[in-house]
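Hey,

Quick one before I head out. I ran the complex with (2S)-amino(carbamoylamino)ethanoic acid overnight. Inputs first:
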Amino acid sequence: MTAADRGTLGHGYTVVTPANHYPSRLPEFGDQPVVKLVTPRLAPSRIGQYLVTVAPGGGTTRRVGAGHERFFYVLDGSVTVLTSAAPDGRWSLSAGGYTYLPADMAYEIRSTDGARLLILKRVYEGHAAHDAPGAFSGHRDDEPFAETPVPGFTRRELLPVDDPAFDFAMSLLRFDAGVGLDKIEVHDEEHGLWMTEGAGLYVLNGDEHPVQAEDFIYMAPYCPQGFTASDSGPAEYLLYKDTWRDGF
Ligand code: UGY
Ligand code: MN
């Protein structure tokens, strides 16, 4: 088995490991490599999720227009997000920093020393009872992780999960060694998952997949899913989940 063999296209899910990455490009990033971890080409995904390696002195080639809502999360390095919503027109993000931009918000990315950036992009699904949310920025360390009913499993919500104006959540889920989800979940929402730390076993539609830091998983609606962190140390992932909507 080679390193690339863990990459899988299963029924209702994919596993993409670093050894599987095949960089492509997007016009707004010019020649800087973009790994398209998932896009709507993979039905039924309604998200694009991208790993972008921003070159030192690089960033977007121009102001990127509106049309989609976006979420940026800095894995390493640092970037500046230039947008009219930010105080003084800019948010400076170091590793663990993030920004949400609504669909009508244009932006530019700049980086002095380079960065690796996870970007989530989707069409905003509005709701008649709620105005679209505004821009939002923060850092993973701004608040402590909260306890869950499962001892050794904590989570940190990066966006306001109690506000139905948002049509998705971004959460960091953290597990002590040997700890996992307390059930095999089957739910209507889809997931894009990036392993930020550690390793463990993901059960996806009944198939067992060892996963580790820097792996990506797409889970379609109703994909049965379970996770247990390895015994060797804590594990953590950044999880996208579409929320507050029902797909009509
Ligand atoms: O919130 C969730 O759906 C989460 N528990 N799912 C997951 O970690 N795969
Ligand atoms: Mn889930």
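The pocket of (2S)-amino(carbamoylamino)ethanoic acid (ligand 1) is lined by residues 173, 181, 185, 191, 225, 227, 239, 241 (CB under 6 Å).

Talk tomorrow,
K.
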